[in-house]
Amino acid sequence: MSSTISNTYPRTLQFHIDGEWIDGGDRAIHQVVNPATGEPIADLPKATKADLDRALDAAERAFPVWRDTPVAERAAILHKAADLMRERAPEIGRLMTQEQGKPLAQAIGEVTASASHFDIMAEEAKRCYGRVLVRPAGQNSFVKYQPVGPVAAFSPWNFPVFTPVRKLAPAIAAGCSIILKPAEETPASPIEMIRCLLDAGLPSGVAQVVFGDPAEVSSHLIASPVIRKISFTGSVPVGKHLMKLAADGMKRTTMELGGHAPVLVFDDCDLEKTLDLVVTGKFRNAGQVCVSPTRFYVQSGIYDRFEKAFTERAQKVSVGDGFDSVDMGPLANPRRPSAMGAMIADARTKGADVRLGGERRGDKGFFFDPTVLSHVPLDAKIMNDEPFGPVAVMRPFDTLDEAIEQANRLPLGLAAYAFTSNLHTANMVGDKIEAGMVAINNLTVSPGDAPFGGVKESGHGSEDGPDGLKAYMVTKAIHQA
Question: pLDDT digit string (tens) for 436-454?
Answer without folding.
Answer: 999 999 999 999 999 999 9
